[in-house]
Queue: 2 jobs
Job 1
Amino acid sequence: MKNQIIKKMMAATAADGVARMSAKAPRLCPSCGSFYTDPPAVSRKNKNIDICPECGMREALEEAGMEHLFGETLAAYRAARAAAGGKP
Ligand SMILES: [Zn+2]
């Protein structure tokens, strides 16, 4: 009986956590300082922090030595995002 209550409580807590993770609560990007709601990217400079997708793209291009492509890559990302109705 007691175990069933604990199981129900744990299931409810897990479901709440999933709901919170999927909610589009704005996050603050520690790299550029802007708020974002798209799924985060993991920083290549510090694997323990999440950054906004745009900074994720910039870091990926920098790592590949292609930072000069950031402008047009960002424009393409924003256009595709807008075409999808603002959804990533
Ligand atoms: Zn950022």
Note: Residues 58 and 71 are 9 Å apart (CA to CA).
Job 2
Amino acid sequence: MSDRSGVQRATAAPASANPVPQRTTWQRERVREALTDARGFVSAQTLHATLREENTGIGLATVYRALAGLAALGEADSLQSPEGENLYRACESPGHHHHLICRSCGLTVEIEANDVEQWARRTAEQHGFTDAQHVVDIFGLCGPCAQARTGERDAD
Ligand SMILES: [Zn+2]
Ligand SMILES: [Zn+2]
Ligand SMILES: [Zn+2]
């Protein structure tokens, strides 16, 4: 983890001229950076561990809050793993979209799903719901992981 070339960031000078409206602003920025550096979906605990290595002094509760804030702003994706854990990811696509996630290696593909959009809207309408939202993510094994698994089985 030492060859982080290209990461050279001016240490945020305490800007006395700049009144900070929210105390959590720099912390949220730091969490956002850590999220961007992470590959695939990560939990708050994982990010917190990363930030602790860097001695940022950011607490787990703050990480949770920052992630929820980023997700609310649409700057991070959030989803629940099959184990029920909340996972987050810095999102590459700005608008509403879905994900294909490899259960084994965490590879994530952002996908559009027009069928799902239509089905969700229609279903909500049929039940008299408006302003409906949905989260649909597909978990599975990516090609290479599935192949590796088959290879293991053949070797037995
Ligand atoms: Zn996404
Ligand atoms: Zn995979
Ligand atoms: Zn959708």
Note: Residues 1-21 have pLDDT under 50 and may be disordered.
